[in-house]
Amino acid sequence: MSQYILRRLMIAIPSLLGISLVLFFVLALAPGDPFSELATNPNVPPEVQAALRAKFGLDDPIYLRYLHWLAAMAQGDWGFSFVSRVDVDTLILQRLPTTLYVVGSSQLLALLIAIPVGVYAATRPYSLFDQLANTFAFIGFSLPTFFTGILFILIFSVKLDWLPFVYSSVPGSGIPWLLEMIRQAIMPVMVLGLFQAASMTRFVRSAMLDVIRLDYVTTARAKGLGQAKVIVKHVMRNAMIPVVTLIALQMPAVFGGAIVTEQIFRIPGIGSLLISSILANDTPVVMAVTFVFACLVVLFNLIADVLYGWLDPRISFR
Amino acid sequence: MFDKNLRGMIDDVKDGRMDRRAFVKRMIAVGLTAPMANQILAIGGVAMAQSPNPYKPTKRGGGGPLKLLWWQGPTLLNPHFATGTKDQDGSRIFYEPLASWDVDGHLNPILAAEIPSIQNGGLSADAKTVTWKLKPGVKWHDGKPLTADDLVFNWEYASDPATAAVSIETYSGLTVEKIDDLTIRITFKKPTPFWANAFVGAYGCIIPKHLFADYKGGKSREAPNNLKPVGTGPYKFVEFKPGDLIRGEINPDYHMANRPSFDTIEMKGGGDAVSAARAVIQTGEYDFAWNIQVEDEVLLRLEKGGKGKALFAVGGDIEFIAINFTDPNTEVDGERSSIKTKHPILSDPKVRQALALLVDRDSVKKAIYGRAGRTTANYLNGPEEFVSKNTKWEFSVEKASALLEQAGWKLGSDGIREKDGKKLKLLYQTSINGPRQKTQAIVKQACQKAGIDVELKSVVASVFFSSDVANPDTYAHFYADIEMFQIPMTQPDPALHMRRYHSRNIATKENKWQGPNFPRWANKEFDAAIDAADTETDPIKRADLYIKGNDLMWQDNVMIPVMHRLAVEASSNTLRPALSGWANQTDNLQDWYRES
Amino acid sequence: MISAVLLLLLIAAVVIGPFIWRVSISDIDVVAGLQGPSLAHPFGTDDLGQDLLARMIYGGRISLAVGLAAMLVSVFVGTLIGALAGMSRGALGYALMWLTDLFLSLPQLPLLLMLIYLFRDGLKAVFGPEGGIFILIVLVIGGLRWMPVARLVRAQFLSLREKEFVEAARALGASPVRQVVRHILPNALGPVIIAGTIDVAAAIIAESTLSFLGLGFPPDTPTWGRILYDAKDFLDIGPHWALFPGGAIFIAVVAINFIGDGLRDALDARKVI
């Protein structure tokens, strides 16, 4: 196994290089301008906008820009943002903790809802509980987060006045500040967590159902094992493969942020940095965020593969 | 007649026979506004009035925190790098110019001891020099004194192309010299009737020489103080997170008495305009929200029983539909919409006239802009003295249809007009923005009724407004028949606003589409009027020239004005912000206070 | 069974609807804006006074067609790549997983902008304006959503290919294709169907974003996703505006899901008793 992991890690380097190349070309070819806000300002003639483009190297050939980026990157230099003229790593590190906190909590919430609900629903298929869980799940992924976010704001902030909906990043300390940090994260975590939980519940339920009707489960039951023991020891472990896959798919997002939700609640996370940088064509920032994201995608794919082997020892990798 | 009377009145004010307030009132009665009346007096030789913003607090501080919501958060805090008004707004909390445009459009001295005038020797009669005197005793936040050297440095800094300053144009075409420690003189290369650009307003903010001197030119990005501003403003810097948060605290040594009123200031970024309006008007989480571009219907509902209200400031921003005078579908020398071509449909004045008749400005106002818009026939909508009274507009599908008939466009069997076997079909592009897509729908429907087939296209704003030479979707390439967007008026003077459409400024492949005349309209009469206005020092003749320019654009239907847009802000009911349609929102921040 | 009827009803409504409900989708009447349901406008009106029933019917055709077709594309591509990667024990598997990782990492917005910029005119010429746009949208949405399916299918295959019944089939000399089609795939369908139902909803929403970017139908085309997006800021003023598109997407999702479940039960020998 360790040999396998080592080999995968070796492959990861050229494959990440390939991904970075494609990413850079996509970003460089995508049209747009970091200075478009200047366009209609009568005080700033278009030559200024064009001169800024030239100064930041946006008019150089793409392959040159890529080589520059790669060379700088190899020395740990992430470049600077065209828009704020701040170093990219500073920008990202400023926002990472918030994203980890909010998106991480919501993923946790999704798992905490999806696994028990999905498992329980699968043990009693087509019961009232199962039907209800399914209906909520369908509503959950039929409604996009841009919609549920506003719905939550209207209910919990405007009507009931329970929760704030502007996420404040003013630093502080003490218990009241800590409570405030928790309070303001409730709505975004719920919106994102419930959306994820909806689809996750369906996957867990289906994976459980696939296993629950296999012969060995019937055998275990016939041996006189209790229902709870059968479910936990025999069914869940084998049903976890799709769930692990899904979690591995979601994990990079914990670092990459959630664009829509962060935007709605003004959470200063990676997602809102990414979307504003994309809209402003701020290539160094977008490149850095997406490249880190790509590394995580590759890493968690590897972790998932290792976990498959642990969950089902018959799976062999050579 | 009017001209002669006016001269008499100016003299009366000058000699003290007439109260300046009375003069301003008389001007308003004949259709001018206070700002213009004051400009007339200033150039006519009467010192400009200072109309301090009403300010009640009798002591500095004690006003608690001021919480501002900017749905596009400032991304940098060096005023010379500000790419958008959001960055200017953020910088302005800490940095100050010599003077700002106040609520009435007067120049309000900030760091200047007085506003230059002919009386006080600040302005020369030939409009080629301006002498500014600094307020004595002003200190930077780190305790160093503000001197004339700082101003000269700002000019050198911004006008150096290697600095890559956005304010470069504001500081080119002039020289700045130090007269003494508290006096500078600006010398323009040619007569400049509108002299209040450098060191005034948003791009006029002054950065300290002692912290930036080592970072002029190529090293400008490395200055540590780009992120930690040290200015002269009412608030001192505490914290900055690009795009997210700016925090400041009261400047106890501020140079204006009893100001500022608030103890701390917070500017939060991100989100969207609607929820920003909610946070101020509905829940009161924040005191003030910037640029609330929201359907008025929504604002009115929010205001019912809310904790705040929408505020409107009149400036000169214009939302319009521009007509392409060249052919976007024929390529000449590797360029579409080439000046060597003529638009096959829209070069006919009757068709353009018909299009103007099909823009239902009342419906657009009712359904979208509401209180935040005024219907207009003019491209130039302010200051009042430059606004033409000779134009009119109307909405009539019948008249438009009749005009199209006359022009030879006959109704086809499918309800679309045609001429010589060609369908009357137009491509209508704009940037992606809720109100704009709704306006497109309203215009398209009227056009369909008149037998014009309109195809709608919307482009992401960062692409539409980019200077990317290779991208065909920018407003400057104009590879469409008509296009719609807004041009703001950043100062109470039309020179920059009107100069765009001079025929030497036509956007072409040769000038990399940097020519700001995107409709590619060429009119000798207009060119002559604009050239004359550029150096005309007589304010009345100058205004007439710009009105003539506006009327020529109206006659030719170069631009179909959709809406004269007002700046919209949301404010809590107790906050008393000092806002002006001629300035950025934070330009008079020192005068903000809360009614107890 | 009920679900198939439900979906058929929905399809019938959007196909036959315009012949019964003959109100224009674009008639603007700002005075009659934001009205709740009434006899004249059974679904009410939006803020420009356009009839929501007519817009829902018109938009339903596009949304249902795009949602279903894009779902089929993503499920097909995902299953194909996942199955190949799951069966392969060599370089092909690595290459396909690399491709999946690449697509997962690509930021979608810049990618879409680049596609528009590079290929719009060419695609218009090749596919023609109307049908071309439909094919383009379906390919773009499907092409950006197949990766989770591929990873899920591959994971299932890794496990299933070692199971006794597959080994038995292999021992009996079943070709790899037969092993996959007859034995492995039916047992791996569970997650695929769930992903499919989620993709229908996601594709209907995604379509509305595309039209914003100038890649989809013109911005004045009312689709369910678009109507829902436009309605969001008016949620407290005119809740009916959002209710109908939201409800329609929900019904479509439920219907697709039950059809999927039925499909799996039909393919699977061991049914839930």
Could you explain how this protein is built, in words?
The complex is a heterotrimer of chains A (318), B (596) and C (273). Chain A is an all-alpha fold and 318 residues long. Chain A has a domain at 97-311: MetI-like (MetI-like fold), CATH 1.10.3720. Helix content of chain A is 75%, strand content 0%. The mean pLDDT of chain A is 84. By secondary structure, chain B is of the alpha+beta class. Chain B is 27% helix and 19% strand. In chain B, strand 7 and strand 8 (245-250) form a beta hairpin. The model of chain B has no long low-confidence stretch (mean pLDDT 88). With 273 residues, chain C is mostly helical. Chain C has one domain: MetI-like (MetI-like fold). Chain C contains ten helices and no strands. Chain C has helices at 2-20, 52-87, 91-105, 108-127, 129-143, 147-160, 164-171, 176-213, 224-231, 239-267. In chain C, helix 2 packs antiparallel against helix 8 (176-213). Chain C is elongated and about 75 Å long.
Task: Name a few traits of the molecule.
heterotrimer, A: 318 residues, mainly alpha, MetI-like fold, globular, C: 273 residues, 74% helix, 0% strand, elongated, membrane (chain C), Peptide/nickel transport system permease protein (chain C)
Helix/strand layout:
The complex is a heterotrimer of chains A (318), B (596) and C (273).
Chain A: H1 2-29, H2 46-55, H3 62-74, H4 88-123, H5 128-142, H6 145-159, H7 175-212, H8 215-222, H9 227-256, H10 259-264, H11 270-279, H12 283-311
Helix pairs in contact in A: 1-12, 4-5, 4-7, 4-9, 4-12, 5-7, 6-7, 7-9, 8-9, 9-12, 11-12
Chain B: H1 2-14, H2 20-29, H3 34-43, E1 65-70, H4 85-92, E2 99-101, E3 107-109, E4 129-133, H5 148-159, E5 174-180, E6 183-188, H6 209-212, E7 235-241, E8 245-250, E9 264-269, H7 273-282, E10 288-289, H8 296-303, E11 308-323, H9 349-357, H10 361-369, E12 373-374, H11 397-406, E13 410-411, E14 417-419, E15 422-423, E16 425-431, H12 434-449, E17 453-459, H13 461-464, E18 482-487, H14 495-499, H15 524-535, H16 539-556, E19 559-572, E20 575-576, E21 593-594
Chain C: H1 2-20, H2 52-87, H3 91-105, H4 108-127, H5 129-143, H6 147-160, H7 164-171, H8 176-213, H9 224-231, H10 239-267
Largest β-sheet summary of chain C: none
Number of H/I helices of chain A: 12
What is the alpha-carbon Rg of chain A in Å? 24 Å
Low-confidence stretches of chain A: none
Shape of chain A: globular
Number of strands of chain A: 0
Q: Write down the oligomeric state.
A: heterotrimer
CATH topology of the domain at 97-311 in chain A: MetI-like fold
Global shape of chain C: elongated
Q: How many separate domains make up the residues of chain C?
A: 1
From the alpha-carbon coordinates, what is the Rg of chain C to the nearest angstrom? Answer: 22 Å
| Distance from first to last alpha carbon of chain A | 8 Å
How helical, in percent, are the residues of chain A?
A: over 70%
The sequence of SSEs of chain A as H and E is: HHHHHHHHHHHH
CATH superfamily of the domain at 97-311 in chain A, by name, is MetI-like
SS-based class of chain A: mainly alpha
Organism (chain C): Bradyrhizobium macuxiense
Subcellular location (chain C): Cell membrane
Domain ABC transmembrane type-1 (chain C): 60-260
Protein name (chain C): Peptide/nickel transport system permease protein
